[in-house]
Design a protein that fits this description.
Shape: globular
Number of strands: 6
Largest sheet: 6 strands, mixed
Length: 156
């Protein structure tokens, strides 16, 4: 049985925004197995300087990521879209084992198959140390509330 992940390409502005929010919600769950299901079995990633191949490796990568990035909260925003491709910008806040806080900024390029599963993800990310008092993402762990400001609203 073929799995699909709506909305499916080709994307409109509305469906691209839905896809971006679904990705944000998935990543904010911090559930590597759940998040990995959004990608094809043979999905290819470049995440910073890491090259990841396949859903199983994605799940292992995310497990390691969320073991070291505590209090992870993410906001994604649509940047551009065309046919089966979406570009997003994002920021997330997290702390390390020593309770040092960071805001990570980045851009992602996504390519989807006809089934709506992501087959290519290219992410460029930079980390900025911040004081805990500079945090802007204060919702309870999990999905960002609908009334919480987005990146543009926060001037990020």
């Amino acid at each position: 049985m073929q799995m699909t992940r709506p909305p499916l390409p080709p994307y409109t502005e509305e469906t691209a925004k839905q896809k971006v929010r679904a990705a944000e919600d998935g990543w904010n769950s911090r559930d590597p197995a759940k998040v990995a299901l959004a990608y094809t079995v043979d999905s290819r990633w470049r995440n910073r300087s890491d090259f990841v191949q396949g859903r199983a490796e994605i799940e292992r990568f995310l497990t390691r990521k969320w073991q070291r990035e505590h209090e992870y909260r993410l906001i994604k925003e649509l940047w551009a879209f065309h046919d089966n491709r979406i570009a997003v910008r994002f920021a997330y806040e997290w702390s390390d084992y020593s309770n040092n806080w960071f805001r990570s900024y980045g851009n992602e390029n996504w390519e989807f198959g006809v089934d709506g599963l992501m087959q290519v993800r290219i992410a460029s990310i930079n980390d900025l140390p911040i004081a805990e008092s500079e945090r802007k993402f204060h919702w309870p762990l999990g999905r960002r509330p609908d009334d919480h400001p987005g990146l543009s609203d926060l001037t990020l």
